[in-house]
């Protein structure tokens, strides 16, 4: 059997992504992830007011705008040396996590689970149940997910005005002081969501879930009660195992997490890293994060070449426009940490945090599509108690904003976890205006093209070795890609100003 | 009966999609059911395989499958050099797909400011534009004279993102045969006939010119903080966001995001002003009268406002 | 943990009950679950038989069953001649039951204006009064010095009816140990710290004194139509009713229904005024300053408002 | 076995009602309905502004305030000779019916159905199903009813500002002009409610229900499909039959309906009476309604006696205060039509309108608790199409209000159907102020005490002859009383001003 190159079906991902895979003898032997849209976002920011990143960068992504908002505010705080008041930190953590939770749940059931309805599975045992729950617009889970994720977002509206896209997080804290009755309402909404998540998604209380410390525990939990077995998580696990998702979708085994949920009282928690700490995990060893080790490569990206990688603060972004792009195939750059590709996202967070269940799952099978998706779907179980704790901890008596006057000139960096993984903003202010703004998104990490060394990005690597029964309907590849929850609306690099751009010839498959 | 809908995402953030998901009574699923809208395609939600998807597209383009509603989210990216290759779909410029679909569609809807006027992407160098407007100027991608099958120009539903209840309301009007009254910007006046300032909970601060100078204060955001609410049409303070709140109510200045000139050049969070008086005044007021009256109003401000003794 | 709640209806219309049923996220059932409130009794909803009900009452009165929250809806009817026989329960004056329960309750809540201040029934001759206020005067049925077990006076949640989200919010605060800040009327300032006027969509009409003279017009209802919004504390225009709207937004003047003097003597739908200027002005403004400024404001009114070119 | 007198358990009725029944040999042989609260509402209105009834009368009842509002506006229109514009009539009909629909559904499942959970039924076949659906706060139907009735009330909030208690209906039309987009939103909400009502309550489309023309059809419908059988209506019917509710709760066989849903274009529909016409049905003959034939008696009510009955316009209301009240036992007066008691409410409306199903049911068994409750629960099936028609018929181009200047002096009467039956307001204006205001509520008709002739009120009469198995738990009587949906917050008569009131001694059982 010869080689075929196919494009993996890519509906239901946020943004514009095309994935090509080469298949030989029923197995994927190579893969290329292409960001197919270039929006030039960072360039738009240049020359604008110092605070304008708060308004503009969230417009990169409608589903994780608050992560951008917080990164933009943090970058300016980093530049200006400001620490927000503890209550502001609590509210920020809360709202960012709220956004994550809605994204995690929506991705799981509006996007990921839908692949289990692929016609190839029609004759398998769980198909009917999957259809009843996960059919777009109709399934019972889908309907509930739409209803309940909408409700939890009310927390953000109450505290920040609206969702999506309100710049209520500002350098120094929050744009306004939440009232006591707003906070009470948020507590109710959060508790209500928690109960729904426990009842419908997990099938058990969070406390029970958090007792699961390895894959045996997971098996035991699944068998323990009908509620576990029948929950949406239970069904998803059974489907994933039935279709072998725990055996596909490996990767480079290097994980990056930016953390970014600082404990509010930084004095007391000095040295500690908050929930889901930042770090880089390589060969089972966690390395402290140093943003200076982040670089971006453009060897396979449609930008004017430079050697090796450059730190985002020094990065250049000139769309390659000579008409002879050679091997270039993506509008995404290739970010690397210490020169290595790194997977980021919920599984990476769990690994860096030393979560015993996910460390065990990866120890046994390596990273895989099931573990990746499981990490996403159960992340709320780890978030929700912290969200409740922070919300309850807001005293309301203290300030939510520390004025810092005008933002002075300088350079700052804001790192934190977005729903899909580590997000970094690098900003330079000069004479009160943005001189330079660089953004490296989580999907830029995961769906990265090859780097200067020709090393594949994590998603590319994870596709290699996947058995593909039917190249016309490569559902296995789709599972793998979706397990990364790719969001390519984030490939937003900047165009060199005043550059005359020639015509690009793109050699896309089909 | 029943209408067919194709949702195309171009240079945008999918925020309009997620805003629509926030609508309530009915929610988005119920809305589609009630209006008997058949979603031929939505990039985040459809289950059709790429093969099917391409067949659907082909049938629309060939006129075999009737397309009633074309919803476009995001700006049309024409760069580099007019090729559209900054935004491709299966290797072809997505803008070509926009043309083809628009020419077949019963009605074309620009969901959000990007699709309407170009929005944020139009301020960059990717040659982005709105469907039938480029910022304030008519024309845009499809040209001034474009009319869809129904005889209507592109219906613009600006907002960054567009308010979910506005999208669901306009879809309802179109499907049930309601009449839209379009403004000069091809915006349905029924949903954009009031200012964001109308219904702002900080209205008394505004009236008596009790001003906010920095974040975290209580006061009107118009005089110093760059609030665009008195110059911006939108229902934000009447039809609350997520049925709960609005930006100005949460102390966040209106960004003017439904305006064709969004994002404006002047830095956000700052009012352009001379001697403490904003250069841009509420729509329609006479400068001299306004200044005279605002002076007296400030003098008449009750103590409860000056002392911020209010839960607003 | 968990709190027990007894809901007593006296001289009222059950509107507060139904208003609470309109609350959302959580709805009333979810609210009770989330707060782990055990409803010992609600007249419209409880399934306990009268025998059980009387046993419950007896156990509360005897101190055997702890009553955390006593919610009273409706005014306390003391007539005729102080007997309370205009409102009986199993042949005995209901007011006696109020006394007994209030003396055992952890916290006593007056749900709505009737229970708070007497409301409409207090303007009649059935000797009706509020729990701890008679209209503006402290005292009422339980007397000025009454304190419940928690040490608090009766917490008044006025409104005719009280806004459902206010009731659910205050219950949440009490159950979760939140601190209430009470005003001179024993009203929690957190929920009554803003004017109904704050957030009114007709605020521009008000600002520029563009007036409504009859129903069906567009304009401010304050100058002629008797709107009490600038003199009335309430969240109606911030936390929308039924999550949709408010009276003033629908062209209905604020009736001042959270005020201790509701219903006022002056006819509704008419402003008491001299020479076209209302006698009652927005809370806290100085009459002379206000008149001067309103004159100039009217002169500065933009044409769009004078012509009512707005969807408000 | 001797006679016992019991008080019928009366939770879950709106307002203050006590019902005493005398039981001999296991059968109720006599009954007394007492309104136990006197609020003196009408007296409050005297001397107030001409329009103040719009604000104050809805405060009589929190669940049917709009019926009072419309009656108050209609009375003033009747006085002033104003006809509201057609679009205003459409909106008024729509909002009144919306309120009825919420009340009908809430009463059915939050109040009526709960009696099927009485311990006496615990061993009967359908108990478990009833518990799962109708248990207060917990049952699935209860939860859905709370959710969906709240949603349909949004229609009133959109058009009138809020629910309960916004005086948006005014003499001459509406207080403001509904916008086109509001009307569209209402259409969606209405259609959504209709679908829920069809799916959950009926188990079939309205059209199918409306094909049912007699009791055979009803039986056929019930057996036709599992959806019918299993719907909430289906279950309620099965429970009602199982427990014999179709054989208890008769009455006087005289029915009163005030109609009150005029077709908007009164020119064209002249002579016609709109949906559910007004009329008085006696001995199978419908008599045109003449409000002059309405009288009120006080022989058994705690008011100073007068002879026979008086028209509400001439009525006196002086609480009887000598301490020697004899047989008096209620704060409700005894309204009579042509000197006769009359049942009012959904069943009466159906009977007066000549609805074949209900005429057949009553022909076979006489009026009964099941028929009465069935009429209430299916009334939305007759309302909803009209509501949709009227809403779609609002042109929006025409006026919604015709100014009529000040209300001049005179007398007016406003009659119409409230959720619980015919509601009448009689008003006299003198020098721009209310001189007199009399209100006769539906529950005053149904829960009426005896009149001057000693004739029982409809509910009293309906209790006589009911078998009572256990006087300690007389659930049969409870079914009968509830089938009238009594709401005694409406007993609101006026106190003579300045009268010194003595102490009342009440001889209540127990």
Structure, explained:
- The complex is a heterotetramer, with 2 copies of chain A (510 residues) and 2 copies of chain B (312 residues).
- Chain A has 510 residues and is an alpha+beta fold.
- Chain A has a 4-stranded mixed β-sheet with strand order 8-7-6-12. In chain A, strands 1-2-3 form a 3-stranded antiparallel β-sheet.
- Chain A has helices at residues 41-45, 53-56, 65-80, 86-112, 127-134, 140-160, 180-202, 206-210, 215-224, 226-230, 232-242, 346-352, 356-365, 369-393, 442-446, 458-463, 475-483; strands spanning 3-8, 17-24, 27-35, 169-170, 173-174, 254-258, 278-282, 285-287, 294-297, 309-310, 334-337, 343-344, 410-418, 421-430, 433-440.
- Chain A has one domain (3-492): Orthogonal Bundle (Cytochrome-c3 Hydrogenase, chain B), CATH 1.10.645.10.
- In chain A, 64% of the residues are buried.
- Chain B has 312 residues and is α/β, with parallel strands linked by helices.
- The model of chain B has no long low-confidence stretch (mean pLDDT 94).
- The chains are: A alpha+beta (510), B alpha/beta (312).
- At the C-D interface, helix 1, helix 2, helix 3 and strand 5 of C face helix 1, helix 2, helix 6 and strand 5 of D.
């Amino acid at each position: 059997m010869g080689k075929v190159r196919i494009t993996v079906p890519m509906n239901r991902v946020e943004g514009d992504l095309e994935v090509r895979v080469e298949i030989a003898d029923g197995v994927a032997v190579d893969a290329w992830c292409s960001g197919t849209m270039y929006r030039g976002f960072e360039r738009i920011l240049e020359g604008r007011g110092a605070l304008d990143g708060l308004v503009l960068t969230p417009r990169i992504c409608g589903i994780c705008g608050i992560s951008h908002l917080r990164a933009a505010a943090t970058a300016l705080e980093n530049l200006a040396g400001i620490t927000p008041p503890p209550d502001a930190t609590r509210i920020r953590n809360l709202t960012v996590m709220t956004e994550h939770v809605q994204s995690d749940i929506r991705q799981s059931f509006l996007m990921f689970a839908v692949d289990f309805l692929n016609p190839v599975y029609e004759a398998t045992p769980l198909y009917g149940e999957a259809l009843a729950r996960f059919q777009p617009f109709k399934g019972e889970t889908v309907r509930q997910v739409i209803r309940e994720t909408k409700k939890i977002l009310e927390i953000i509206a109450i505290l920040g005005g609206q969702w999506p896209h309100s710049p209520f997080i500002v350098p120094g804290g929050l744009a306004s002081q939440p009232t006591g009755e707003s906070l009470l309402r948020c507590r109710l909404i959060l508790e209500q969501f928690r109960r729904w998540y426990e009842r419908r998604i997990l099938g058990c209380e969070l406390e029970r879930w958090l007792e699961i410390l390895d894959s045996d525990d997971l098996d035991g939990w699944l068998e323990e009660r009908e509620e576990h077995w029948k929950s949406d998580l239970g069904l998803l696990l059974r489907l994933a195992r039935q279709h072998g998702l725990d055996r596909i979708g490996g990767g480079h085994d290097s994980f990056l997490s930016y953390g970014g949920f600082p404990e509010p009282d930084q004095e007391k928690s000095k040295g500690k890293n908050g929930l889901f700490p930042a770090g880089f995990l390589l060969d089972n060893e966690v390395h402290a994060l140093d943003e200076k080790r982040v670089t971006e490569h453009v060897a396979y990206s449609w930008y004017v070449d430079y050697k090796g990688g450059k730190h985002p603060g020094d990065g250049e972004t000139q769309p390659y426009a000579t008409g002879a792009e050679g091997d270039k195939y993506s509008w995404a750059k290739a970010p690397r940490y210490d020169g290595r590709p790194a997977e980021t996202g919920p599984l990476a967070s769990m690994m860096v945090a030393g979560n015993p269940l996910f460390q065990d799952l990866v120890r046994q099978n390596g990273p895989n599509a099931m573990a990746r998706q499981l990490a996403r779907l159960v992340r709320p179980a780890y978030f929700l108690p912290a969200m409740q704790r922070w919300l309850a901890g807001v005293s309301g008596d203290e300030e939510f904003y520390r004025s810092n006057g005008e933002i002075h000139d300088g350079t700052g960096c804001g790192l934190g976890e977005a729903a899909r993984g580590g997000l970094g903003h690098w900003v330079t202010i000069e004479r009160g205006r943005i001189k330079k703004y660089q953004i490296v998104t989580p999907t830029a990490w995961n769906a990265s093209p090859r780097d200067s060394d020709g090393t594949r990005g994590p998603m590319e690597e994870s596709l290699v070795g996947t058995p593909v029964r039917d190249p016309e309907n490569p559902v296995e590849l789709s599972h793998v890609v979706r397990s990364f929850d790719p969001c390519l609306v984030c490939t937003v690099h900047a165009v060199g100003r005043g550059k005359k751009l020639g015509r690009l010839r793109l050699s896309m498959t089909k | 009966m029943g209408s067919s809908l194709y949702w195309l995402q171009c240079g945008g953030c999918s925020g309009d999609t997620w805003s629509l998901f926030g609508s309530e009574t009915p929610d988005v699923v119920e809305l589609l059911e009630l209006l008997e809208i058949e979603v031929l395609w939505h990039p985040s939600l459809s289950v059709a395989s790429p093969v099917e998807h391409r067949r659907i597209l082909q049938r629309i383009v060939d006129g075999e499958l009737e397309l009633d509603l074309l919803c476009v989210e995001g700006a049309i990216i024409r760069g580099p050099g007019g090729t559209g290759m900054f935004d491709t779909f299966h290797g072809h410029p997505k803008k070509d797909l926009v043309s083809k679909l628009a020419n077949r569609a019963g009605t074309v809807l620009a969901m959000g400011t990007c699709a309407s006027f170009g929005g944020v992407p139009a301020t960059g160098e990717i040659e982005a534009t709105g469907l039938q407007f480029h910022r304030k100027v008519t024309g845009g991608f499809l040209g001034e004279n474009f009319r869809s099958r129904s005889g209507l120009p592109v219906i613009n539903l600006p907002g960054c993102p567009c308010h979910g209840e506005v999208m669901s309301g306009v879809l309802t009007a179109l499907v049930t045969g309601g009449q839209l009254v379009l403004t000069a910007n091809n915006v349905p006046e029924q949903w954009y006939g009031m200012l964001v300032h109308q219904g702002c909970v900080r209205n008394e601060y505004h009236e008596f010119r009790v001003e906010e100078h920095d974040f975290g204060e209580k006061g009107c955001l118009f005089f110093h903080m760059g609030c665009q609410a008195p110059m911006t049409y939108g229902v934000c303070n009447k039809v609350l966001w997520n049925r709960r709140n609005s930006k100005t109510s949460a102390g966040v200045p209106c960004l003017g995001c439904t305006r064709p000139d969004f994002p404006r050049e002047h830095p956000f969070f700052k009012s352009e002003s001379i001697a403490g008086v904003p250069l841009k005044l509420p729509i329609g007021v006479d400068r001299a009268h306004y200044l005279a009256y605002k002076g007296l109003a400030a003098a008449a401000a009750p103590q409860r406002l000056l002392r911020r003794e209010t839960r607003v």
